[in-house]
Amino acid sequence: MYEYILIRYGEIGLKGKNQRDFIKQLVKNIKRSVKSNLGKDAQINIERGRLFLKLNGDDPEIYYPSLNRVFGVLSYSPVRKVNLDLETIKASALEEFQSLPKPQSFRVTASRSNKRFPMKSPELQKTIGSHIYNNITDLKVNLHQPDVEVFLEIRDEGAYIYSKKLSGLGGMPVGTGGKAMLLLSGGIDSPVAGWLTIKRGIVVEAIHFHSYPYTSERSKEKVLDLAKVLAQYTGQINVHIVPFTKIQEEISKNCYESLWITIMRRFMFRIAEKIAHNRKALALVTGESLGQVASQTIDSMYAINHVINTPVLRPLVTMDKEEIMTIAKKIDTYDISIRPYEDCCTVFLPKEPKTKPKVEACEKGEARLNIDELVNEAVENTEIIAVYRDRKDEYGFF
Ligand code: ATP
Ligand code: MG
Questions:
Q1: Which pTM value belongs to this model?
Q2: pLDDT (tens digit per residue) in 278-289
Q3: Whose CA is nearest to atom 25 of ligand 1?
Q4: Which fold has domain 4-167?
Q5: Rounded CA gap, 171 and 169, in Å?
């Protein structure tokens, strides 16, 4: 029977206080994820560069979905703990081996921090290895490339045995990297951009520009559903729904059609920067990818970026659509993104958008608009909806 799950985290480049904060946040996030999925308070010990989650009689597998949603978890293993008695250790190691799907070859790797234990590591490896070998038919020992490696650790408080290693998501614990505002459309790209940002430990709040009645309630629901998927990794995502209709109407009435998209995006950035400031976020995040559409040429990015001072993170900037779609499928946003509801940009789509818009041309077009008033009005009428993982997480990054 398994007593613990051993959890490994990446610690490359982390030292001193950074490492302590990283571990503290990681433990907190694992506890939140378990609490939210299982309604349980996980008991986690921190020991020598690893974490031990105590199972208290639970099947370890019930914890895997929770661990698979926590950034910062590199890998994990269910672990047996037995008394420091050779016969008991042998039996437990064999039991561990028998729980695996028929490996052809194996090795035993032992370590002994408890020097009072009478057998040294090489001898232990041999003894435990022989015991497994003698009890399983058609099995080979392979020291260099075994199908399975059975690990045995002899410590003061007991012996630990494990062999399964499951991959986690890697990345950094959410909450260790500050906050950013994700411009979340209903498309395929921006949820992926959000997920990749969260992966680096950043807390994300979403901003969605909504053009009711040109876009329907259902397109808003789609965005909230996407936010819910992202909330699986953070616990909570606040979604700021910005009324964008008036701005789009003003732009389409007053500006050259070929510049609609560029000017619209400049408004999105201005509004997002204001909301970021109010929410103490230090960057915007978009799903832009170079060259994907007219508004994502480097000329367009320059013209759009020109209106703000806040850094814009573009995690997908060099990715091909195929690569982005692969991630979208892996993280379960793809099926939501391809639901056929219109986006605010498709409603006011010019026939021939400029691929090389000029800042001066945009400024000239915008001179007919009352920019500050339009931006402030949109920010003031923004609705905030909190989207939660499963049950309500009452802790908060927010
Ligand atoms: P996506 O798949 O994310 O919609 P896209 O390939 O359709 O991206 P665009 O429509 O050009 O690209 O949008 C570029 C980026 O601008 C999006 O990735 C998103 O970050 C932001 N964006 C576009 N429309 C909206 C919207 N209605 N609300 C919030 N952000 C938006
Ligand atoms: Mg889009």
A1: 0.92
A2: 999 999 999 999
A3: 185
A4: VC0802-like (3.30.2130)
A5: 6
